[in-house]
């Protein structure tokens, strides 16, 4: 029977931790729970140390380092054959973990499982199906899932710690390595999309810093996956590329934007470089940050 490690990044989730951890309700014995506190200031770490949760280990980062750093520390500590990622403001539905156990033990040849969460429960599927790297890269498959992945894969492809967010940079790398993935149309996780401190909301382009962060992410994305995307979906590539060019200008990173253009497979590079040179950064910055 496969051992499963549940890795839970925690940052200022004191109010949600009991709901999350107590939802791991199972008679299965071969599992562990690893909660990694990312420098919480609300007493989350202190609460974790007092909670009587079976097979729970508690780690603490040296300061607030972001979800990618935090997940890597949990992966390193884990001893399971597979790792299930659970956010600390979410919870497993009853029998949710047992469904994971069943599929993992019955399909040992699969390296990567994706289970439905509450936000995609309206997707219609009557049986497990497989997906591919191409489908993910071209966004024919997208959205939130609960990921369950072989630990050896995650050790080979750790999350990029220089980014505090943008986890998809590594998900695509993992998906390319593990295809085909098994998507299981069983809704096992409830996710909280209403929190005012939801990470997606904090990444909105309301400051030069946020714009620069998004541009850096896209530059990194193109370096890793640009050639593949251009081959699979040239139109989709161009939309993403043009968006990155605008962000680079607005972030006052014209030199870096020119370098991204030079490295790209797009035609008419000279026209893009001229556009970068003549477009005022301050005007574009204001136009983006003032959008509702």
Task: Spell out the blueprint of helices and strands.
Elements (H helix, E strand, L loop, with lengths): L3 E7 L6 H6 L8 E7 L6 H7 L5 E5 L6 H11 L4 E4 L5 E2 L3 H11 L5 E6 L11 E3 L1 H5 L8 E5 H6 L11 H11 L2 E10 L8 H4 L5 H25 L1 H17 L3 H10 L5 H10 L2 H9 L3
Parallel strand pairs: 1-2, 1-4, 2-3, 6-9
Antiparallel strand pairs: 4-8, 5-9, 6-8, 7-9
Protein name: Glycosyltransferase 2-like domain-containing protein
GO molecular function: hexosyltransferase activity
Organism: Rufibacter tibetensis
Task: Kindly describe this structure.
With 292 residues, this protein is of the alpha/beta class. It folds into two domains: 4-190, Spore Coat Polysaccharide Biosynthesis Protein SpsA, Chain A, CATH 3.90.550; 204-290, no CATH class. Helix content is 45%, strand content 17%. The chain has 13 helices and nine strands. Strands 1, 2, 3, 4, 5, 6, 7, 8 and 9 form a nine-stranded mixed β-sheet that branches. Helix 2 links the parallel strand 2 (31-37) and strand 3. The model has no long low-confidence stretch (mean pLDDT 94).
């Amino acid at each position: 029977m496969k051992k499963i490690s549940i890795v839970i990044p925690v940052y200022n989730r004191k109010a949600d931790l009991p709901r999350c951890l107590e939802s791991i309700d199972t008679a299965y014995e071969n599992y562990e729970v690893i909660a990694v506190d990312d420098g919480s200031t609300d007493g989350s770490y202190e609460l974790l140390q007092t909670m009587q949760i079976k097979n729970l280990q508690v780690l603490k980062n040296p300061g607030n380092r972001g979800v990618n750093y935090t997940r890597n520390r949990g992966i390193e500590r884990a001893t399971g054959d597979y790792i299930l990622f659970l956010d600390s403001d979410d919870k497993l539905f009853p029998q949710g973990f047992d469904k994971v156990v069943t599929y993992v033990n019955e399909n040992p040849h699969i390296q990567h499982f994706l289970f439905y969460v509450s936000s995609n429960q309206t997707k219609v599927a009557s049986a497990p199906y497989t997906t591919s790297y191409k489908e993910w890269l071209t966004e024919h498959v997208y959205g939130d899932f609960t990921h369950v992945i072989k630990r050896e894969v995650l050790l080979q492809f750790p999350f990029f710690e220089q980014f505090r967010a943008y986890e998809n940079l590594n998900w695509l790398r993992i998906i390319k390595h593990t295809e085909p993935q098994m998507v299981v149309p069983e809704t096992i996780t409830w996710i909280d999309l209403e929190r005012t401190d939801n990470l997606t909301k904090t990444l909105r382009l309301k400051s030069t810093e946020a714009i620069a962060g998004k541009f850096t992410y896209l530059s990194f994305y193109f370096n890793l996956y640009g050639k593949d995307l251009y081959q699979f979906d040239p139109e989709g590539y161009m939309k993403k590329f043009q968006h990155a060019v605008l962000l680079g200008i607005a972030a006052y990173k014209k030199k870096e934007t020119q370098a991204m253009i030079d490295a790209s497979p797009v035609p008419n590079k000279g026209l893009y470089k001229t556009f970068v040179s003549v477009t005022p950064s301050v005007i574009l910055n204001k136009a983006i940050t003032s959008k509702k």
